[in-house]
Fold:
Amino acid sequence: ITAKSASEIVGLQESLARLGFETPQIINMTEAVISGSIAMNAELAETAELTGAVVKTFSNFSSIDAPDILDKMTLATQKSALNFGKLQTALPIVGGAANAAGVSFEQTLALLGKLSDAGIDASSSANALKRIFIESKKGGLDYGQILTKISNESDKLTSSVDEFGVRAAVSSAILAEKLTETADLTNKLSDATIFQGTAQTAAAERLDTFTGSLTLFSSAYEGLLIKMNK
Structure:
């Protein structure tokens, strides 16, 4: 009854089961993962794995938040140079540090988005952000306070090296220049009137094409074969 085949749905649910989710949680998450997968043009099992990892990483999330998580990730790919592949690379690297430092999922997405816009690859962005969060927390400061301080310096790169070290210097200097843009994207990702339903809408638009129609036909045909086999 979905655009995905029965075997793909099984793969999705197996990925969630391997992460320790129980059957009711998996059922609650399935529909949202399907929409997010189509919206971001990603493999279903990989989308499930990333969504499940985000739920497990950020302490304020549970399985019922899967639709919001996928809406926010989809919106982030629409409002920045991020794509699913970049999120798949970056979030597992930086997510734990972000959660430990009290940085929200929305802030993390916005920061990754601005670094992606600047051409920084996903792995480098994630590792730089992880260092920024850790060093800020170690100094007892909010990362935003330090970035604001850097933004007021004439030599931002040297100031970034002093604050976060060589490896995170370029990324922190970029973010110091983009404080307003990052805050704007964070607000959009946090506003339910903007992000809610993004994945489902984007998925419907992708399916409203000739290729999408073939996908739906293929899924419906497999459904017919399953009924015949029963």
